[in-house]
Amino acid sequence: MGGRILVALGLAALAAGCVNKADTGAAEAATQTFHERLDAKAYAEIYADAAPAFRAATTEPVFAGFMARIDRKLGPCRKPVKTPLWRFNAGTGGTTLAQGYRRACANGELEETVTILVADGQARLLRYDANSPLLLTD
After folding, report:
1. What's the pLDDT score for residue 10?
2. Closest residue by Cα to residue 111 from 76, 83, 136, 71
3. CA–CA dist 31, 12 (Å, integer)
4. What element of type H or E holds 14?
5. Per-residue confidence at 19, pLDDT binned at 50, 70, 90?
6. I need a surface site. Which of 1, 2, 38, 116 has the fewest CB within 10 A?
7. CA angle (93 as vertex; 53, 89 as ends), nearest 5
8. Per-residue pLDDT tens over the stretch 68-95
9. What is the pLDDT of residue 15?
10. Would you say the C-alpha torsion 33, 127, 118, 81 has a positive or negative sign?
11. d(CA 64, CA 47)
12. What is the DSSP code string of 24-75?
């Protein structure tokens, strides 16, 4: 039921004009590019194009290592499927849009949240969260 409420609130916000359609479209395109690069294991490209706040929070080697661990533990994944998780925040520094995804992988399920920052005419990765029980063990 909670997912229905989030969807209803998101639809209400869209109807009220709170979410800029251009920002939403830019975030969708950036997320698609992110997933394409993720599947191609182009971690350096993802990192290089990420928002400055993302790059300030981690180094490229740590990010690449985290992504390699996900790939090693879960194996090849199918295309992402959106979940009801969707949130946005508009402020003076730009608009952040977060979308949840579920991916069926060779060794188990992967839950993702991809957060995109749209600012100064650019949509960039701000945060990536990955969740799977397989990531907790060696």
Report:
1. 52
2. 83
3. 23
4. helix 2-16
5. low
6. 1
7. 95
8. 999 999 999 999 999 999 898 888 889 9
9. 41
10. positive
11. 8
12. HHHHHHHHHHHHHHHHTT-HHHHHHHS-HHHHHHS-HHHHHHHHHHHHHHH-
